[in-house]
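Budget justification, computational time. The allocation requested in the original proposal was used primarily to generate structure tokens for proteins on the priority list. As evidence of use, we reproduce two of the resulting records. The first is shown immediately below.
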Amino acid sequence: MSKALMIQGTGSGVGKSLIVAGLCRYFNNKGMNVAPFKAQNMALNSFITIDGGEIGRAQALQAEAARVEPVVDMNPVLLKASGEMGSQVIIHGKAIGHMKPRQYYANKKFTWDAVKSSYKRLSKKYDLIIIEGAGSPAEINLMDADIVNMAVARHVKSPVLLVGDIDKGGVFASLYGTLKLLGRYSNYIKAFIINKFRGDPEILSPGLKTIEQKTGKPVIGVVPYISDIGLPEEDGLALSRNTFSIKPVNLGKTYEKIKIVVVRLKFMSNFTDFDPFFYEPDVDITYSQSSSDIENADMIIIPGTKSTIRDLLFLKELKLDESIKRAFSNGVYIMGMCGGYQILGRKIFDPYSVESQQKEIDGLGLLDIETKFQKAKITSRVNAEFNGKRGDIFPFLPLLAQNSLSQELKGYEIHMGMSKGDIGLFKLRRVSEGYSDNPAKCYLDGSQNGNCWGTYIHGIFENDYFRRGIIDYIRQIKGLTPLKFTFNYAQIKDNALENLSDTISDNLDMDFIEGVLKL
């Protein structure tokens, strides 16, 4: 059986996910076969495994840090909030329906069995499992329903490190209060970590001594606030502030920037699809609900959403649909991703009440497609190629590489709806389980109408030449010189994971941690 180490937090957003990622890379660099695990995650950012299962995006990043392929057992229970319908419940990578809180908690035995079976499989394959808790383990109203915090620690007999976020204030009270509310389970807590500290750690010395005296638990590290960590945000908190921890690639000079506006939908999902643009030295990207921002953009992106119909109604309520249409008429480059692609179409039908009780609604009508929601969810990795030369919407491709038109694009699909109409921008092959039985079969995807296009392919902007081509195309439209420069996004992420690992290990007592693990 593998060894286990659990990272819990005094609350949501304290940095558990990135500490787990940093530890995964640290122990992998030491030659250990390590995997991440989070029993239950509530997130709208998700990822598709090679076998077509859906897991939290944070666990996919942690697996990347551990240099292992993400699998559904790393996140056996995923909840995706869906408004008045409750949450979509995903077990072992597959959606089983929507549940409201009481119904979900009534099914604890089912979800707990899923957690135990996933952990058992992982423990047979890996030397060490780094476990992430969720929220706070001291939610005393939910302790009987717990399947992700102390329930997991008890089940696998894992030592726990408790993380507090000093940037939020009140970190010592949070650590002390959490420990006291845990009661008899507090014995699982072996030490504290203070995260996101700004300034001289010596200032904390009196507090560190006092908290250790009052609890008998040591503080084994003070991790500094990392302003330019260069990794995807663990939640959507940064969206409302438009403050992101990614800095553009430094080319030694400044460039006039194109402005990309991602429409900040109410139920936006997979906002990390657009992270690669933050690295581009000639791009200013923002998330906005401002009609002024939208109408003055060089490129507008309508992102994915967990509730397409409600977000379409949301756009109409704010009259942002009119702003998007005016921008289209003025020649602004418009792109729709997944749910955003559906919103750009003529009609959306929901005959089975998959998303709402509204059976039919008019879309923005910028693309000649109609979407019908199905009961089954399509989740698959895909390989895609351009269907024909597509020089009308992608004239930039020959500028980048001689064979760029035949370059294969990689990404993944996560959607309930099926679209029909003027479709054929891409030919794609689904390469996950359930589709790979006929690897030669091609599916058509994507639609285009002048300066507007859309696709179901998540991750399409992680394809470096494709992303740069779009930017240079818009630069040309604006009369700017194309940079014809691109970078390896995957390598940049890997470098950021190395830096994260170094920061974590430099500021934590790794001898203590390895001692707790008996390595």
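The second record produced under the same allocation is shown here.
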Amino acid sequence: MKNILLCVLLAGTSPVLAQQNDLIRFVNPMVGTARMGHTYPGATVPFGMVQLSPDTDTIPYAVNGKYNPEVYRYCAGYQYNDPTLVGFSHTHFSGTGHSDLGDILLMPTQGALQLNPGTADKPQSGYRSAFQHRNEQASPNYYSVLLDDHRIKAELTTSTRVGFHRYSFEDAGDGHIILDLIHGIYPYENKSVWTFMRMENDSLLTGYRQTNGWARTRTQYFAITFSKPVKSYGYRNFAPKEVYKGFWGKFDQYNNFPEMAGSQLRAWFDFDVKAGESIQVKVALSPVSTAGAVANLRAEIPHWDFEQVKAAGQALWQQELQKIQVEMLTEADKTNFYTALYHACLTPTVYADVDGRYRGIDQNIHQADGFTHYTTFSLWDTYRALHPWLNLMQPQRNADMVRSMLAHYDQSAHKMLPVWSHHANENWCMIGYHSVSVIADAAIKGNTGFDAHAALNACVATARHRSYDGLGYYIDLGYVPEDKNGSSVSKTLEYAYDDWCIAQLAKKLGEKAVYLEFSQRAGNYRNVWDAGTGYMRPRLSNGAFRKDFDVLSTHGQGFIEGNAWNYSLYVPHEPDTLIKMMGGRSAFVRHLDSLFSMPLPDHHFAGTEDISRDGIIGNYVHGNEPSHHVAYLYPFAGAPHRTQALVRQIIDSMYRPTPDGLGGNDDCGQMSAWYLFSSLGFYPVAPGSDQYVLGSPLVKSALISFPNGNKLEISAKNQGKGRVYVKTVRLNGQLLKGHLISHDQLTAGGKLEFELSAKPVK
């Protein structure tokens, strides 16, 4: 009924598509990265704790004691070009450049029992199975595949905390469901520290496993229930022989024994199956306890109606997708848009039981009162566009994420906000302290769902933590010296931006002393500017610039996942000053133009896993995050037409609705959030400001329904191939002058009208 009413409201006012009742059909969960395949195609609900997906191989993290570069392709567990599946696990990251998880892998088989996954070239040597993409389906909250070697159709769906499997056996005979608790993404010997399971009755199993990996102390509790009684069961421990095992030898503990424990366990559950019979399995997760997992199971899926769970989850996706209804030039563009919106609703993930209890960073159990607790904070990536997107479209959810960050701070032994955290662990990945950007952006844009004064105190304490990653040098010298701490230029630039965010929050709250302190620190980017070369450059502790310097290389030059050409443009909070430093407007435009047009030979990034040719235009690296604001800098130099052309070029070349459709890691939704903003015609160059820079919309029209009840109708007059330049922009009939639009102007609703042209308007 809601969609019908919406169509009536739009009649006669806009060309926005009225027939959007099933937007999930425009989502392609198979879209991933050309070389790396870092997204997964499985089932989940928006921001779900359970992210259930097939895993295609078990590539080890290390070979002969050394890092195995091949493992990088398996960050999400699924590689599109692989010919076999090893099973279905319940936790995944979407598009990250490092990995963990892959918990609680199930695999249905038939015939002789096998407890080893086997090899891809000989799938019959283990429990894995060959499969064909023509027998594979993926859509929001649903995945299915035919396992060729076992003649079993596997189907997956989920609720927030429960994964639901349906295995349909073509043939009668002995059926097995393998539970592999050694399996994991980025596996290595002894990553699984301990596993314990109890067979509570003939159809309910509870347990937990502890792992040591990217998250060094992670405990995952679970409850598994089968739709029919188990005929027999058992397990094997594949760990090396233990010196002392107590007195358990008096039992046959490996066959039909209700307690199972060890560090390297694989279990099996046997069933007599008839031809065409389906066995269903529900797997509930909990960060707290097995009792919590059982409670989650009973609260979310108390029945065995697979189709009902699938439909309920897809209704949640429809609810998210219909917040923005777009008309595009092509079906491919529409698929790109809603796939990006899908990706932007995968993480951060819920990390609490149905009663609000969760495991904190101190490994104790806490209660989330009045908010939903989240984890999976890939902040070096997501502060740039994903969290600003959530501020725009889901401010209450983003406020809960901020409250989760503040809880992390309260529980932290270091008294720091999260850097890159997941599953009750800080893994300290990447640089900066970008929680402060997320917090400041929310507060500046009027999100009042958290204690802003407590948040400011946490931001200040984090930014004053001298022992963190060169921060003491930064405080004393005004920059991070390369001879004392690596990636020094990137750190200096990102710390300066974060400090500006703290200053904006302090200004809003009337904290003058804090505002002055961090406003001064926000200018520290000047201390790594080398006017002689015209680039940001690594500086030593004696004040001198390092002599050896290659502006194109991504290796050993003082930068992380980027080179001097790209990173020298990272002053998002003070672009006008940057333009002056680079010689003024004309010189700056020429510099930007050369960035997008010059060649970057492969050897400059060949050893950098996160950067590949697929994500590069000239020397501009869209496939990694530090450059995501760069195309939007032209308007500050009086050349908005260059932004308009380049944004559309980036959209066309970096996003496709295919399995190799992304030009780089999606990084928990950041790449997709860039696309969403850019397709609508504006982008948050400096989160922590309430301003967006105008670009060139890809949509023909869009209707955005904001949580405050207001609606913004975006239209692009004369939209068409080659017409990428903006002649005029009008908001509610009034001509907008300049290149900025504010958060309040957008969320107040109304009509935002772009008039496009095939010729630049200078």
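A brief technical remark on that second record: The domain at 33-318 is CATH 2.70.98.10 (Beta-galactosidase; Chain A, domain 5).
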